[in-house]
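Final paragraph of the annual report: two paired records, presented back to back.
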Amino acid sequence: MKLLAASVIGFAMLAGVHEASARPFVSTRAECRQACGGVLLICRAIGVRSPQAGALCKSKIIRLCRRYGVAETCAPPTTTTTTFPGVTTTTFPSFVPTTTTLPPAAINPALAFAGTWNFYGTLSQDTCPESLPSAGTERLTVTVIPSSPGAAVGQAASAPSTTFSGGVSSTGDLALEALMSNQNGCTIDTAILLDGPISPYTTTTAGGIGFDASCPVYVAPCRVIYTGTWTR
């Protein structure tokens, strides 16, 4: 059984998990978190120097995205050709770094993580009431975001309808996250970590998968973490 599916089976992740459906604005918070992952990475970097400024940056981007929509705020850049042969102009949405050329790995650390990874790990922490397996596996496909060096998204085999977003930290690790909810009123914050820094030729690295779950029936939020090895 895949790790993520096994980990959250008590919350009916595969049967009932869905992104928050309320749409008070043009886009939902979940849609903005997914589409603006690369931009929000900049806010995280600001937060290292000033947590208050980082939180304000994130709040402002999410608010603007929800009000004006993903396409207007954090959509990928588009390229159009002018009437002069060989001449190209590029249009960028607000807040997106101005570059259309895929940076080399030297200035885009996320490129080293691109590709498909297989995880095998063992249960290292479990504070949830459900009984979980002692070991588990996962398959993850990592795709970089060319317009935001260092940013990336991931698709897990056990949760194909969910997109994990994030990027490479200042220490070289790749961290991806997805916030989900289910029909039982539970909020599940799932995180995936691949240790770095690595090179494009690295085939094995350590890491883990875990989640924090908050449910109405729980006395307090609980946490589950699997640690192990990623290979490709």
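The closing record of the year follows.
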Amino acid sequence: MRIRTIAQYLVLLILFLAPALACNKSNVPTDVIAPDDLSGMNFRYESLYGMDLSEKNLQNADFTGADLREANFSGADLTGAVLDMADLRGANFTDAKLDDKWQQIIDLLVTGDGANKDYSHLDMTDAELMHVNLSGANLAYANLDRSNLFGANMIGSDLSRASMVGTGGDFTQLNDADMTETDIRGSFFYQATLTGAIVTFEQLKTAKFSKSQI
């Protein structure tokens, strides 16, 4: 009886872990990325988890929404490449060529750590910023339109006059953040926390807050 219970438990455990394990694998065949010239390739919403793309020509390639975690882009040419909403956590961009927008925030996207750093005036539109640490960061005048701030720590950050139009802020921590004149029109915040944040009632009316602490 006990053995049968343990066996059942193991089956349930495997079923539970299978989806997570599957997410940590690339669904792009290795022969597809074998050529050195992959310019203009469409990898939208594909998984290239852990794939080696080092030294390749990836000019104008489209990685929109792709899973690029742990991928190796060292020495690759990514000028003109689209990285909107791509998950870049743990990826290697050593000596990679990137457009200015991505070059300026690539460390944040890879490490997720931007605490107390200066990102003022930077363009972060459509950036995948899930679970990043931006506590105490200077984001004044930054453009965060349509970015994904799921679970982001933005406690005490300076978001004054930043643009967050259409931004997703589920579980985002905005406690004590300075949101003076921050444009949050059309943004959606689910179970976000804004206690102590500098924000007006008029601003709050332009976004949707569900089960959030304000």
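The first helix runs from residue 2 to 23. This concludes the annual technical report; the extension proposal builds directly on these records.
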